[in-house]
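Re: Re: ligand-bound prediction request (bumping)

Still looking for help on this. To restate: I need the protein modeled with nicotinamide-adenine-dinucleotide bound, output as structure tokens. Inputs repeated here so nobody has to scroll up.
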Amino acid sequence: MKKINIALIGCGFFGQQLALGFTKVGANLLGVTDLSMNAAELLAEKLNTTAYVDIETLLQNTKPDLVLIATPNYAHKIPAIVALKHNCHIFIETPFSIHQADCEEILSLAQAYNKRVFIGHLLRELPGLKQAKKIIESNKLGKITVARATRQRWIDSFQDKNWWKNDVNLTGGKLFNEIHELDLLCWLLGKVASVYAQSTNRSHNDTPDNHDIIQLLLQFESGVFASLEMGTAYRLHEWGISIHGELGALVINFFTSTMTLSLSDGSREQFNLYNEFEADLSLRESGKATQKYNLPHTLCPLWLTRAVEIEAESVIGHLLDKDKECTLDEKNVDAIIVASAAKKSIQEKKLITL
Ligand SMILES: NC(=O)c1ccc[n+]([C@@H]2O[C@H](COP(=O)([O-])OP(=O)(O)OC[C@H]3O[C@@H](n4cnc5c(N)ncnc54)[C@H](O)[C@@H]3O)[C@@H](O)[C@H]2O)c1
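Reply:
Sorry for the wait, this slipped through. Here it is.
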């Protein structure tokens, strides 16, 4: 059977997870590279592959079908462009980019080379979220009225201020770095027409750029109203999305790893987000912990490892057989457009129409 050949750019925390996930589902890892040759060599040794000194050398020597890009948020564009120019499909970790213009440039280049751009919006591929999408599309909820998303945790003050994950100019800020719920709102509910956003830093003044409360008010083109509240100044943790329609409500709760559909006829159905008990349990356990940004060479909890494997299976399946659906190469810029507008709204203190 044909195998998809892959190469990895960026051998830190998530690059390692991606390489493990994609190889587990049958991809053939031909080589890796990193700005730090030491990081590339360590991972290459662990995964029994070859470390290359730079992206050009990696791609010239390996000629992969698909390139995985797991560099920091500010450094997604150049690897993406080089990989496309080498005629490869690309998989970019979230966020696509911290600049909307980069996303558009990458997508138009991909179109010119007839290549796919997959973005690591891994929550979309969880069985429960796919079910949520089907429920909304099947009109079971009737006309959607309003939605509310939350991603609220506590984070302890940062120790290493020079680490890129603690520098808002390099992460793009939480709106970009933690874009998953905004992406899900856009993916489930369609195009956003306007956004008003406000943010503040209540409890982490030793890191003045990093806002720990962010609130967005969204109006969708369909007329749906929505809000997103996110941040790290919340001692009571909440993580989920509720979507209300005229006929019922759908509640996705990541901390119970469930989705509940309640309809006005009194019926109620509950689904787990995974099809496997251990991954659901691991996601439930994660709710207790305070927010942490992961160091290179650490491993993901099981729920995240499985989410990577599930998304990898979908990407590889799609590349081998175009009829197999993969949600990760569609509607990829929508959340970036809204995040950029929200940032502008915060700066200018006004409603931004898209
Ligand atoms: N989907 C998710 O849930 C999820 C989770 C964690 C991280 N991520 C994303 O994965 C990406 C990587 O994050 P991480 O946690 O692995 O960071 P990391 O700091 O652990 O690793 C990044 C690696 O990229 C290397 N690098 C930097 N610039 C490079 C360049 N120009 N060329 C080659 N290598 C370069 C660094 O040396 C480092 O080894 C980020 O975009 C992050 O947001 C996504």
